[in-house]
Amino acid sequence: MQIQYGFDIALELPQPAAILAMMDVHSDCRHCIAEETELELSPAIAADRFIDSRGNIVRRLSAPAGSVSLRLGGVFRSDGQEDVADLTAKLVAPSDLPPETLPFLRASRYCETDLLSDFAWANFGAISGGWARVQAICDFVHQRLRFSYPEARPTRTASEALAEGVGVCRDFTHLAIALCRCLNIPARYCNGYLGDIGVPPDRAPMDFNAWFEAFLGDRWFTFDPRHNRPRIGRILISRGRDAADVAMITSFGAHALTRFAVVTEEIKEPAVAVAAA
């Protein structure tokens, strides 16, 4: 399966500013790219590219005042399979976890484990089995929160999402991550493309999506409390402790978003005409 992906974003800057953009396909997934354009910047401005400690690709731009646009597109080769599930995946004691998973047990900007620990243990602590426990958390978050773009705000934390009962995909993800961490399950935030492949089309404009990965047994597994079902064709952009680690646009100075378009769709094979005998 081939998936077309890309973005077209414009910002308005009242004064010159440095910008960090984290919107490239993640370094772990670049072997699946069939083709990709160069990042198109308008006006043409100085930019460098580096990979951070979690494999995220970061662009640093020196932007002038005025309008700045960023465009990129490509084709991604997917195996066409749904997210991997393993109902036998086990919990791993903190003493036995690989060292690289330990940062994903700690509280972070949007995931306040200290505020949610008692709630997590009271509601999910008795569930046996690693997969069953994480899935129960996803089921709960999916049912507890109402998805609403108009009520989104960038400062909402996991505990606030729980109290307010509303959010967008990042809020669903933050709450599930925080509850997992409270139960000693490493969980990391993921951002990327997710098209309507194998599911009914969503009438809302295409957007980037958030989900998370939980460490069970000896590997990371994908979970998605917003959609709460295995999906096809995820394209990872970034991983971090929460959304604060993987902001798509960080400007060192004020900016306003004036255009935002995202493309993620399966490339259908053209029909083959068969001549009549």
Distance between the termini: 32 Å
Q: What is the radius of gyration?
A: 20 Å
The tally of beta strands, per DSSP, is 15
| Unreliable residue runs | 271-277
- What is the C-level CATH assignment of the largest domain? Alpha Beta
Beta-strand percentage range: 25-35%
Q: How would the global form be characterised?
A: globular
Biggest β-sheet: count, sense, barrel? Answer: 5 strands, antiparallel
Tally of separate helices: 4
The pLDDT mean sits at 95
The SSE string, one letter per element, is: EEEEEEEHHEHEHEEEEEE
CATH topology term of the largest domain? C8orf32 fold
Tally of separate domains? 2
Give a brief outline of the structure.
With 277 residues, the protein is α+β, with helices and mostly antiparallel strands.
Kindly describe this structure.
By secondary structure, the chain is of the alpha+beta class. It folds into 2 domains: 2-79 and 248-266, Immunoglobulin-like (Sandwich); 94-232, C8orf32 fold. It has helices at residues 113-124, 130-144, 158-164, 169-182; strands spanning 2-13, 17-21, 33-36, 40-42, 47-51, 57-63, 66-77, 146-147, 166-167, 187-193, 209-216, 219-223, 235-240, 249-251, 256-266.
